[in-house]
Description:
This protein is of the alpha+beta class. 30% of the residues lie in helices and 26% in strands.
Amino acid sequence: MKFFLKHIFFLLLFSGFISGQDSITILKNMDYRLADSLAVHFPKKKYKSITEITGPLTDPLKTPHEKFRAIFKWITENIEYNKSGAALKDADKIVRKNKAVCQGFSNLLKEMCNSVHIDCDTISGYTKTEVRDINKKLKKTDHAWNAVKLYGHWYLVDVTWATSKFNIVSKKFEKNFDEHYYITDPKKFILDHFPKDKQWQFLPKPITAKQFTRMPLYYADYFHFGIEDLSVKKGKFKHKRKKPLTFTCTAISKIDNASILLNYDRYSIDMKLKTTKNPNEYTFDYTFAKKGDYDLTLYYNGLCVAEFLIKVK
């Protein structure tokens, strides 16, 4: 019965009856235990070319999405984000050196996928990683990621950001697999990835560069909480002193407490969460006592989720 249902799903997906958000949700929640296990336990040794890896890694797997997952996971397990690998762009050289930066990561994913007949393209574009990027004019592209074609549909992934997380204390990238950047909803992906070519947004109505730069700076835990509809949409704005500023959102994960940090102060300010009729909705108010320019960082459950620049008049 399980095999029959699986066969029906792939038939519907390939025929176009399942698409958009439904197909993203289904593919993200597939059973990847075998693919992940093969990637994690794949022999650790020196390889001269990607073909020495992709065949043995994916041959035991029957479906395209499992083969893609195994390749994606293998890269996150074996390639280190290291600026000393910035010059490495060729896929075979990257597997020999085991290091790269974003362009190398995306090239490697593309070539490994193509070698097992999975369509995968690299995408160049812009990201926001610091609060000073808010309202900053986009000039030279600063990042690269991928789109993969599975069952006739294109999906967005970022193998670089799925591999490592920047530790602000040690100032180093540390291995930390992030599931969010594997087959990501385009509506969420656009919050921190803006492609140079708008066709890669995969949105019904593509946004402009100005709209992208005006948004807040979103951190990884914003997505991990499953936050939707944060009421403060602009990253930089003016606000009146003594007028409450309201933060409201819905979230999949339970939020027990909220706090804010102002102008990199050492101490955060705890906020009182208000209850609403919707159990998944969270809201609180903050009132500025003094005029001035503020950098406001929003925390939920002690985790940084978003940052704003506010001029209080």
